[in-house]
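FAQ

Q: What does a record look like?
A: Structure on top, sequence underneath. For example:
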C-alpha cells in the first residue's frame, strides 16, 4: 500500500520515522510529511502552541501539498494524534483514498462528508483525555453515516501516545497489539480492495 503518515503535535520525531520503517519492512511505501517544517517539541503544550500559531488552515495546506504527488495512486492516510485528525480530513476529501488508519486521534466530520465504504481503523487509549467516550461514540456514528466502514480498538490503561517509546505514555503491550492489528488491516486492504 501507499501510505502517508502524519506526525503528532510533537513533530516529526524518531518514533514516527521508526513507525514508517516498520511499515516499509512489511512491504508498504510510506511518506512522512513534516508539517512543522523541522520543528519538534518536548511537550504537548509546546507543540499545541506552535500548531495554534501556525493555524489549522496552513497546516492542512501543507498536508494537502505533501500528499498530492501520491494521491493518484490511491493512498492510505494514517497519523498519530494530531496527525490522525489531519489524515482523517484528507481521507474524507479524497475519493481515491484506499483506507484510513488513525492512532491516538480523530477529528470533526463535516456534515456533508460522504465516502464509499472507506475502511477506517482507530486505535485509542481507554480512557483517553483527548478522545472521551462520548466523543468517540458520536464520532463512530457520524463516520458510519458518512459511509465509512469503521473498526475501533481500545487499550485499557495505556497513555494517550502509547505507541511512542520515547514518551512517558508508552505501553509496549498496547503498542505491539496496535501494530499487529494495523498491519493486518493494511494487508487486508492490499488483498481485498480494488483501486477506486
Amino acid at each position: 500500500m501507499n501510505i502517508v503518515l502524519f506526525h503528532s503535535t510533537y513533530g516529526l520525531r524518531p518514533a514516527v520515522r521508526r513507525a514508517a520503517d516498520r511499515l516499509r519492512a512489511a512491504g508498504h511505501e510510506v511518506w512522512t510529511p513534516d508539517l512543522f517544517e523541522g520543528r519538534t517539541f518536548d511537550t504537548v503544550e509546546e507543540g499545541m502552541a506552535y500548531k495554534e500559531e501556525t493555524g489549522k488552515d496552513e497546516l492542512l495546506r501543507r498536508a494537502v501539498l505533501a500528499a498530492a504527488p501520491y494521491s493518484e495512486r490511491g493512498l492510505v492516510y494514517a497519523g498519530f494524534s494530531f496527525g490522525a485528525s489531519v489524515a482523517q480530513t484528507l481521507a474524507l476529501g479524497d475519493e481515491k483514498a484506499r483506507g484510513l488508519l488513525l492512532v491516538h486521534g480523530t477529528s470533526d466530520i463535516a456534515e456533508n462528508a460522504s465516502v464509499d465504504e472507506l475502511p477506517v481503523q482507530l486505535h485509542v487509549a481507554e480512557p483517553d483525555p483527548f478522545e472521551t467516550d462520548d466523543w468517540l461514540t458520536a464520532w463512530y456514528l457520524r463516520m458510519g453515516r458518512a459511509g465509512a466502514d469503521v473498526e475501533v480498538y481500545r487499550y485499557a490503561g495505556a497513555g494517550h501516545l502509547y505507541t511512542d517509546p520515547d514518551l512517558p505514555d508508552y505501553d509496549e503491550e498496547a503498542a505491539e497489539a496496535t501494530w499487529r492489528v494495523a498491519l493486518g488491516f493494511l494487508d487486508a486492504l492490499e488483498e481485498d480492495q480494488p483501486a477506486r
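Q: Is there anything notable about this one?
A: The domain at 2-192 is CATH 3.40.50.1820 (Rossmann fold).
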